[in-house]
Amino acid sequence: MAVELPARGVRVGGVSVAPGEARAVAIPLARGRGTAAAERSVPAWVVVGNRPGPRISVVAAVRGVEATAARAATRLAASLDPAALAGSVVVVPVLRVGGRLTPRGRAPALLKFPGDAAGKRAARDAFTLFSDVVVGAQALIVLGAPRRGRRGVVVARGHLEDPRVRRLAAQCGASALLGAPRAEGDLLGAAAAHQVVALELSAAGASVDAAAAEPLVRASRALLTGIGVLAAVEPPPGPSLIRPSRGEAPRAPARALRVRASADGFLEAPVSPGKVVRARAVLGRVEPTLPGPPAAVVAPDAGVIVEAAGPGPVRAGATLFVLAPPPPGGAPRASDAPTDGHAEVDGKTRVGWVEHVALPRLEIGRLKAKIDTGARTSALHVTRMRTIDTAGGPNRRPILEITVPGGRRGERPHVVRATVREFVMVRDTSGRTERRPVIETALKLGPFERRITVTLTDRGDMLFPMLVGRTALGPDVVVDPSRRYLLGRGRKRQ
């Protein structure tokens, strides 16, 4: 007889929300002198269903200027009923300190994720928000808007090398799927490194009202339905140019086409977003500032218009239209296969039971590790560790100086610093219980680099200085217990 597990509560901002509840919480941040608590916190809305399911986080206005996205997040939060949910949804309408939109004309100071618990105040703010909102979620939905006030239909952006991102994007009714640029501190990249499926939805109308926010609300609810949080009781949000073929994850172009103004002037009769145009089609006309004939703005190639500037004054070089090329159809080509030399099984990377890994944040370029799917967490061998300082913020955490043996014979030990995230009780294979510190670091395993948690302990009696558990591997890795060193130049054994 199948037994359904009970629903679990969610803890955000130090507040626990029980199943069947929906309530507002405030994520506290580190305060300065004379700063009110409300000014150094981020409001969020947490909805926990009566049935078990995944935890999904929805954040908007990461730059602080996407008013339409913030409006959509607020309307989405109001539409979620705990009785109709399987799992939980955490909605943050404005992912900025204070939960306020940035005033017009003021350049927003962007937070760099995942942040640093031992860094400056902005880095600690990013660390706290990332830990409370992203860590522990199965999927992250980021709501945004086109830059420079352009109008646009719903466009999905994500890291296209992840088939889960492409498969999820096909369910939201977006007009196009584009690749997200990889930049340091980017929220999508930080979430992907933490094994969280992340997708950005952007859209905006001519004004910031309920009608302009509705496409983002429908697309977000469609994603929640596709993930399984909401029941499929509502019609799809509309036609989509992203369609899976033969059960495979949809493939999409990684770059968009930008059409810019050739000279200063006034844009007239621009084509509305969402229209599919052919190559050399007229998208609008720019009337010059001095008397003269207007210049036609033409499409350099066929595609769908996903963003368009409104009529009015424009400057030379300004982006007037953004086109997404039609997604290629058919099965993946041989040229799309990975070229880094690692083997794949059903689209997943195959690794041996022993591999060489790297820990870039700890400045360890090569370390022999045992891949153990029977262990949930990872462990790192340290010969010495001592507390040298304490990180600031609401939760004062010790900063350790740890000594890690070198990865090669004759290599000098690595002496590095790391901030303790928490302490856990671990029982080893011999039945002994030990209190271990847990740190967060980056693990590089073949083509992947992920942010993982590692316990620190003395593994001097073990053959391998590091053990990589199953939570650090993710769903895209298959372990071959009969082989070793499939990702490197190490010796392979049958």
Detail the topology: elements first, then pairings.
Blueprint: E1 10-12, E2 15-17, E3 22-28, E4 41-48, E5 51-60, H1 67-79, E6 86-92, H2 121-134, E7 139-144, E8 151-158, H3 163-169, E9 176-179, H4 187-193, E10 197-204, H5 210-227, E11 257-260, E12 265-268, E13 276-277, E14 282-288, E15 295-298, E16 303-308, E17 312-314, E18 319-324, E19 344-345, E20 348-352, E21 354-359, E22 364-371, E23 378-381, E24 384-391, E25 397-404, E26 414-427, E27 433-445, E28 448-457, E29 466-468, H6 470-473, E30 477-480
Parallel strand pairs: 5-6, 5-7, 7-10, 8-9, 20-30, 22-29, 23-28
Antiparallel strand pairs: 1-2, 3-4, 4-6, 8-10, 8-16, 11-18, 12-14, 12-17, 13-16, 14-15, 16-18, 19-20, 21-22, 23-29, 24-25, 25-26, 26-27, 27-28
Helix pairs in contact: 1-5
Report on the architecture of this protein.
Helices cover 13% and strands 37% of the residues. With 494 residues, the chain is mostly beta strands. It folds into three domains: 10-227, Aminopeptidase (3-Layer(aba) Sandwich); 257-324, RNA polymerase II/Efflux pump adaptor protein, barrel-sandwich hybrid domain (OB fold (Dihydrolipoamide Acetyltransferase, E2P)); 343-480, Cathepsin D, subunit A, domain 1, CATH 2.40.70.10. Strands 3, 4, 5, 6, 7, 8, 9, 10, 11, 13, 16 and 18 form a twelve-stranded mixed beta sheet that branches. Strands 21-22-29-23-28-27-26-25-24 form a nine-stranded mixed beta sheet. The protein has a four-stranded antiparallel beta sheet with strand order 15-14-12-17, with no helix packed on it. It is globular, with a radius of gyration of 25 Å. The two termini are 41 Å apart. 39% of the residues are buried.
